Amino acid sequence: MTETASNVPVEGVAMTAIGVAVIRARETERADRLYDDPLARAFVDAARKGFAAERWARVLAVADQFYEGRTVGVRLVDDRIGTALDAGIRQIVLLGAGLDTRAFRMGPPPETGVFEIDLPELFAFKEPVLDRAGAVPTCQRRVIGADLRQDWRNALLSSGFRTDLPACWVDEGTLGSLAQEWSQRVVVTLTELSSPGSLFGAARLIADPDSTPYRELRRLMAGDAAADATRIDMPDPDFDVEQWLTGLGWNTEFRSWNDMVAPLGRPATHPDPRVGAIAAMRR
Ligand SMILES: C[S@@+](CC[C@H](N)C(=O)[O-])C[C@H]1O[C@@H](n2cnc3c(N)ncnc32)[C@H](O)[C@@H]1O
Which 3-state string (H, E, C) describes the chain? Predict the structure, then answer.
């Protein structure tokens, strides 16, 4: 597959993955980087070709606004996956994988299955860039072009996912709010596919959809047309995610964002102590 400027997702939800790649490329260039993602630069350089200069400047500006929080978030997920691999888990499922390169950069052992689920248009851009970079995963990387709002279970199973082995499920900015019906359906499905000892991390976010960065992101996703009609799923503060996951069959533990980021020495604290992550283990 040859990547061309027309493969670049310049709008829609798949475009948001480019913004995160911009963030990871920027982090990788720092002397005090929290992780090293050399392929992020390849994605950014390839994506740039698909955007008009003015729109690209806006993508960079939005990435800049999300940078501090998002980049420490990447490192926290790296740590979570590292812990799962150390504990012997050999199946990692990335829900809305975007331009994630953990199958390459984290060196999962060869018997590990890393299952990347995202929309087909995302992989139409991603795969040719990886090919051109000569990137070789250390593990069994499986690409699953599917819409998480539809049937992704069968695609995952036919790509080699095993329900008799534990898995580490990663949602890094895709499910948004577990108060949403479709996000809940994804979690119900992954619960059914999870053997005991499987891990899942859910964010407890409190974000204002009308804040400047989210409004601009929404406009970019909509291609500036009908921007108000483009929804970004936002958390419902009254929905108790922990209680819901417990009822589904997970043991949960909450850690506040501020506790998690404190050891990283970055200016990424959050004023609300209720923001953080729920670490869940399947009973
Ligand atoms: C903000 S990006 C994050 C990507 C990646 N997790 C990361 O941290 O780099 C959200 C990703 O979710 C994907 N996504 C959104 N809705 C989806 C859906 N219904 N089915 C599959 N993927 C979806 C987008 O294509 C995009 O790649």
Answer: CCCCHHHCCCCCHHHHHHHHHHHHHHHHCCCCCCCCCCHHHHHHHHHHCCCCHHHHHHHHHHHHHHHHHHHHHHHHHHHHHHHHHHCCCCEEEEECCCCCCHHHHCCCCCCCEEEEEECHHHHHHHHHHHHHHCCCCCCEEEEEECCCCCCCHHHHHHCCCCCCCCCEEEECCCCCCCCCHHHHHHHHHHHHHCCCCCEEEEEECCCCCCCHHHHHHHHHHCCCCCHHHCCCCCCCCCCCHHHHHHHHCEEEEEEEHHHHHHHHCCCCCCCCCCCEEEEEEEC
